[in-house]
């Protein structure tokens, strides 16, 4: 049973490190060796790119929102890059382009989100390139806040804060998402974040690179910046809002698709090829082990079940896991028990990491994507 005990202790230790030990260490290091960004109120020229595939139901709202930003109109350009849309997306974008000098409508062959973004970047010449999803909305000062870190010449990438809202506009950020944003802020204070988000981010033109079109900018750009000696920063005052998925099935499917791309980058994206020892430790702790959490939980559950007859810590850990699953089950049954919603979300995300790995190994990852209906 020695091998089972090794499996138990190693999986338990790795889960404890990625979820608790690493965040505490990141928080402590950020205070012991802060690496402040020299931000300032600047107004460089910016191209805001929206890659869209069949977003006719939200693209007009998105363009209007960007036109209303508190930013000098002569310093901003809006580019809608349609990835072979077959609905009204192209017509709506073309209408805005005809009515506004600062809007460009670009029709691209079907190649996926990253291919559309690359095509749009080639058509622009601004100092900074900002990106947003078609279903996102920005606060009026978001772009001003997003460009501030670029006053520091070390910064190559900056992402803002995604805020999830109900259909009525009320905020519904959960504890897990707040935890992730807090950890992102600790990494930013240390030097560079290990992941961004597609709703609100910007890149210095000189640092933009065309990547494998199956990769997403969210994960690949931060580590690519660190490998070049550049900084990838989190700017929480740059706010974007989106509606969350309507139900658990939509959210689970979205997570699986997202983690498929994450596994591709972990296994084939050159993620661990540079950036320094500290950043390598961040990637392993926050990304590799987090994506492996589904496998680690399965290993812990199986090993603790095999060793539970010995009692002690083995029985306690098994009992805690079963209690967590039961608590998540009560949320699935819509029973209002404190902590059940968080437990269900954690189980959903964790299981999605394992399903995504299996799907990646079996089917690979396509470059093209479809919109998540529930978040529109």
Give your account of this protein's structure.
The chain is α/β, with parallel strands linked by helices and 376 residues long. The protein has two domains: 1-34 and 245-376, no CATH class; 46-243, Spore Coat Polysaccharide Biosynthesis Protein SpsA, Chain A (Alpha-Beta Complex), CATH 3.90.550. Helix content is 51%, strand content 14%. β2, α3 (89-99) and β3 (103-108) form a beta-alpha-beta unit. α11 crosses α12 (340-363). The protein is globular, with a radius of gyration of 22 Å.
Topology:
Blueprint: H1 2-32, E1 46-52, H2 59-67, E2 76-83, H3 89-99, E3 103-108, H4 113-122, E4 128-132, E5 137-138, H5 142-147, E6 155-164, H6 175-190, E7 201-204, H7 217-227, E8 231-242, H8 248-268, H9 277-291, H10 293-307, H11 312-332, H12 340-363
Parallel strand pairs: 1-2, 1-4, 2-3, 6-8
Antiparallel strand pairs: 4-7, 5-8, 6-7
Helix pairs in contact: 1-6, 1-9, 1-10, 8-12, 10-11, 10-12, 11-12
């Amino acid at each position: 049973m020695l091998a089972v005990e090794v499996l138990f202790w190693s999986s338990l230790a790795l889960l404890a490190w990625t979820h608790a030990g690493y965040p505490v260490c990141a928080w402590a290091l950020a205070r012991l060796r802060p690496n402040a960004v020299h931000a300032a109120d600047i107004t460089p020229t910016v191209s805001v790119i929206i890659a869209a595939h069949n977003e006719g139901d939200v693209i007009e709202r998105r363009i209007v929102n960007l036109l209303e930003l508190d930013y000098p109109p002569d310093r901003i350009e809006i580019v809608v890059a349609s990835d072979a849309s077959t609905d009204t997306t192209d017509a709506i974008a073309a209408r805005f382009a005809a009515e506004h000098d600062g809007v460009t409508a670009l029709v691209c062959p079907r190649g996926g989100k990253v291919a559309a973004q690359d095509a749009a970047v080639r058509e622009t010449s601004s100092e900074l390139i900002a990106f947003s999803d078609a279903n996102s909305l920005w606060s009026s000062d978001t772009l001003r806040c997003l460009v501030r870190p670029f006053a520091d010449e070390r910064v190559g990438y900056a992402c803002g804060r995604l805020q999830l809202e109900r259909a009525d506009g009320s905020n519904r950020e959960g504890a897990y998402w707040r935890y992730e944003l807090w950890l992102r802020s600790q990494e930013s204070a240390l030097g560079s974040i290990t992941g961004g988000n597609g709703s609100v981010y910007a890149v210095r033109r000189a640092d933009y690179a065309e990547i494998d079109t199956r990769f997403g900018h969210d994960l690949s750009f931060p580590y690519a910046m660190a490998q070049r000696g550049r900084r990838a920063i989190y700017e929480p005052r740059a706010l974007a809002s989106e509606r969350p998925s309507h139900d658990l099935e939509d959210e689970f499917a979205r997570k699986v698709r997202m983690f498929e791309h994450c596994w591709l980058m972990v296994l084939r994206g050159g993620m661990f090829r540079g950036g320094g020892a500290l950043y390598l430790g961040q990637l392993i702790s926050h990304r590799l082990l987090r994506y492996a959490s589904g496998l680690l939980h399965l290993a812990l559950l199986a090993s603790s079940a095999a060793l539970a007859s010995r009692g002690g810590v083995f029985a306690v850990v098994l009992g805690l896991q079963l209690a967590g699953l039961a608590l998540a089950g009560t949320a699935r049954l819509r029973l209002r028990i404190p902590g059940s919603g968080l437990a269900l979300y954690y189980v959903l995300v964790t299981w999605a990491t394992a399903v995504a790995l299996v799907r990646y190994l079996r089917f690979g990852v396509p470059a093209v994507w479809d919109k998540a209906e529930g978040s529109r």
